[in-house]
Design goal:
The complex is a heterodimer of chains A (298) and B (424).
Chain A (H helix, E strand, L loop, with lengths): L1 H16 L19 H7 L1 H12 L4 H30 L3 H17 L1 H5 L4 H6 L13 H11 L6 H19 L5 H19 L11 H26 L1 H18 L3 E2 L2 E2 L7 H18 L2 H5 L2
Antiparallel strand pairs in A: 1-2
Helix pairs in contact in A: 1-2, 1-13, 4-5, 4-9, 4-11, 5-8, 5-11, 10-11, 10-13, 11-12, 12-13
Chain B lengths: L1 H8 L3 H33 L4 H5 L22 E9 L4 H19 L30 E6 L38 E7 L2 H15 L3 E10 L30 H7 L15 E10 L1 H4 L4 H8 L36 H6 L7 E2 L2 E7 L6 E11 L2 H15 L6 E11 L15
Antiparallel strand pairs in B: 1-3, 1-4, 2-3, 2-9, 5-8, 5-9, 6-8, 7-8
Helix pairs in contact in B: 4-5
Classes of the chains: A mainly alpha (298), B alpha+beta (424).
Chain lengths: 298, 424
């Protein structure tokens, strides 16, 4: 329990270092928030090991099954929406293709760690210009460049066909995939890392500026994982659980004003301070989330 | 200059004693690291000066067969600067090189630059912030970039074949503000103020002839923090440079670092090609990745620096080792495995960490690595290694290359000669 009490201290210290503002520290009633408490961390190894061992015995079958169902549901929808998008591209309907682009991608962005675990599918579907050798570049962003920068669907038929077949391959592979609690826990953090590395800076959707769709979808994907694991987490570490819940709330509140109908405003509408605030809220959430695995013992 | 020497003699004894001690340690490193060729070069070029040059308070020798700052054991700090030449003629460029040479030799010896430091009616020729400080093992290493050979100075025909901007590597996110340059100066010293002083004064001397294009300061753990001189750790917490070739092996250095006369062009014989990459580390993301993931990324244990599956930092790397489940112990996408390749390409890494405050946009730390490597041939050594890394290195999840430049660093300067005198 000592370990559990000291976790918020580490987390708090980190967020102070990062000058994260606007966080409501949920665990403010704990004396563990003083830096002094961190030293207890060093002496509580035995307790921790015991707690970890106990945790390892936990059964996450329900959560894992739930996540598999979620992933399959997302990929099913992803294939459907991608087909609509690629049909529009092939039909030469520029405006329809543009309107379907970002929403279709959201289904993929929610379960990206699953796709990443399946070999070369992720670069084939989602590589940005420069991520791979020029000759190998294909997928959504290749078409994005044509639609927004070159303002044409011309020459995109092959890319559209390949994209759809890659999406279908993803659907086929996910059936046989090994999903365990460890993949879920690391996947949740990876989703937020994705946001932190490229979405929050507007680098992902450099032609369409639809980064906030990806941003929201990555966060939703992480939130889904958290939802599936939160009862187990609450049983083991109430404070950490509360902190993660609060920080999801805080981040989603920051994101809300940028909603525009069913979608999100262009990334170009964001002011510098908006980007910074989103980024810092995201880091504030990802830090405790990255401790979830340790507490759950996966 | 004389004034300055007198001043430094008046320093309190305790401080001088302390300096001698660190100086002796530095000398040991110099002898260990400089190798036979360096010492032989000294003997030939300035035999009477060997003892004097190597004496602790005189700093490292500026003149020699090779430029200092390449096989020299890395000092604590770096100030790196790339310049664009604005001078209109080869004569002006030559004049700049001569002026830089005089200043660089003085600064390496810990002396003041120029004659007018006590004349009351002119600005001092030295900016003064290093007055009274020891040479601090300062090295100044000069090079020229591909753009210098564009025709402005009649040098088109002298451009080394392999000296051109690096090809685009997968995942590059280069920002022009950290790229290229007609000239470069790598200043390394055991004191940041001394290193900064050098760049500042070179820039001052260059005014009207060359302008700063980009600069980057860097650091590593100091000699005082690690008296044993273990492999430095990068900002991701891992030892960085374990696999470097042995700089005391003169034959190996000739094979891997120094351009040979037959390599062409003749003016580069004894010089070395430098690759510089400004590599930002996504430290926030790294900080929430598991230790297992971190170790799999590097292919080494964080604590010991040992290759995964081994105990000691310098244990032989066994790339064939398989774990119980048949997977390679050192993962296929690990930095170690990809950097090593089949072992046929080696480079001399001389990198420093940097911290440049915040990324104002995201509020995250702008910190990472000022990667510098020296090699005999960029195309045969650096480029294939970087290609492999860019394509598959798991470390790419946590890093982004924001700056890039290459330079041909001149051979050593003989006493009486000047920087680049083999070229122009």
């Amino acid at each position: 329990m000592k370990k559990i009490l000291t976790l918020p201290a580490v987390v708090l210290a980190t967020s102070v270092l990062l000058a994260a503002c606007g966080n409501n520290e949920a665990a403010s009633d704990k004396q563990a928030e003083t830096p002094v408490a961190q030293s207890e961390n060093q002496t509580s190894t035995e307790t921790t090991d015991a707690a970890d061992q106990e945790a390892t015995g936990s059964d996450y079958t329900t959560a894992v099954d739930g996540y598999r169902a979620f992933a399959i549901e997302q990929i099913d929808e992803f294939v459907k929406q991608t087909e609509k998008f690629t049909d529009a591209v092939k039909a030469g309907d520029l405006e329809t293709a543009k309107s379907l682009y970002a929403p279709a991608r959201m289904y993929y962005e929610r379960i990206e760690p699953v796709a990443e675990a399946l070999g070369d599918l992720d670069p084939n579907i989602d590589a940005r210009d420069g991520d791979v050798e020029a000759a190998d570049w294909r997928g959504f962003h290749r078409i994005e460049k044509s639609l927004w920068e070159d303002k044409t669907t011309e020459g995109m038929t092959d890319f559209a066909d390949t994209l759809l077949s890659d999406a279908k391959l993803l659907r086929a592979k996910v059936e046989t995939m090994d999903i365990d609690a460890s993949l879920m826990v690391t996947g949740a953090v990876e989703l937020l890392n994705e946001v932190s590395s490229s979405k929050v800076t507007g680098e992902e959707e450099r032609y369409s500026h639809t980064d906030l769709y990806d941003f929201a979808a990555n966060v939703e994907g992480a939130h889904e994982i958290y939802n599936l694991l939160k009862d187990d987490l609450a049983a083991k570490d109430k404070d950490l659980n509360q902190q993660i819940a609060d920080r999801f709330d805080a981040l989603e509140k920051e994101l809300a004003p940028f909603k525009d109908g069913d979608g999100y405003v262009s990334y170009e509408k964001l002011k510098d301070e908006d980007v910074k605030k989103l980024s810092q809220n995201l880091d504030a959430l990802a830090e405790p989330l990255s401790n979830m695995g340790q507490v759950l013992g996966v | 200059m004389t004034e300055q020497k007198k001043d430094s003699l008046k320093k309190p004894l305790s401080r001088r004693e302390m300096l001698k001690l660190t100086g002796v340690a530095g000398l040991g490193l110099l002898l260990g690291g400089g190798g036979a060729s360096g010492l032989m070069a000294l003997g030939r070029k300035s035999s009477s000066a060997v003892v004097k040059e190597a004496a602790p308070d005189k700093g490292l020798p500026f003149y020699g067969k090779h430029q200092a700052g390449i096989t020299t054991p890395a000092q604590d700090f770096i100030c790196f600067a790339a310049f664009d030449v604005t001078a209109g003629s080869a004569d002006d460029l030559r004049r700049l090189f001569k002026n830089w040479t005089a200043a660089a030799a003085a600064m390496a010896a810990g002396e003041m630059i120029g004659e007018h430091n006590t004349t009351l009616n002119t600005p001092p020729t030295d900016t003064g912030e290093a007055a009274g400080l020891t040479p601090s093992r300062t090295t100044l290493t000069f090079g020229v970039g591909p753009s210098l050979f564009d025709g402005r100075f009649g040098l088109q025909g002298r451009k080394p074949k392999g000296l051109r901007d690096l090809p685009a590597f997968a995942g590059d996110a280069l920002d022009p503000q950290w790229c290229g340059g007609d000239l470069c100066v790598q200043v390394c010293a055991d004191d940041m103020q001394v290193a900064f002083h050098a760049i500042r004064n070179l820039a001052r001397i260059a005014r009207g002839h060359a302008v700063l294009r980009w600069t980057q300061e860097g650091f590593q753990r100091t000699g005082r923090a690690d008296p044993a001189g273990g492999t430095p750790r990068n900002l991701l917490g891992f030892k960085d440079g374990t696999g470097n070739p042995d700089t005391t092996d003169a034959v190996l250095m000739d094979q891997t670092v120094w351009a040979q006369p037959a390599d062409g062009p003749g003016w580069m014989a004894g010089g070395s090609y430098m690759a510089v990459r400004r590599v930002r580390m996504r430290v926030e993301v790294w900080d929430r990745s598991t230790l297992k993931d971190q170790e799999a990324t590097f292919g080494r244990h964080r604590d010991s620096g040992a290759p995964l599956g081994s105990r000691g930092e310098f244990d032989p790397v066994d790339l064939k080792a398989k774990s119980a489940d048949g997977q390679p112990v050192i993962p296929a996408t690990s930095h170690l495995r990809l950097a090593k390749g089949d072992g046929s390409q080696q480079i001399l890494r001389r990198s420093y960490s940097y911290s440049s405050g915040l990324d104002a946009k995201t509020g995250q730390l702008d910190a990472g690595l000022l990667f510098i490597s020296y090699q005999r041939d960029l195309e045969k050594q650096f480029i294939p290694i970087q290609k492999r890394l860019a394509k598959n290195d798991k470390l790419n999840e946590y890093t982004v290359h924001t700056g890039s430049a290459v330079f041909a660093c001149f051979p050593g300067i003989t006493n009486g000669g000047y920087i680049g005198d083999t070229l122009i």
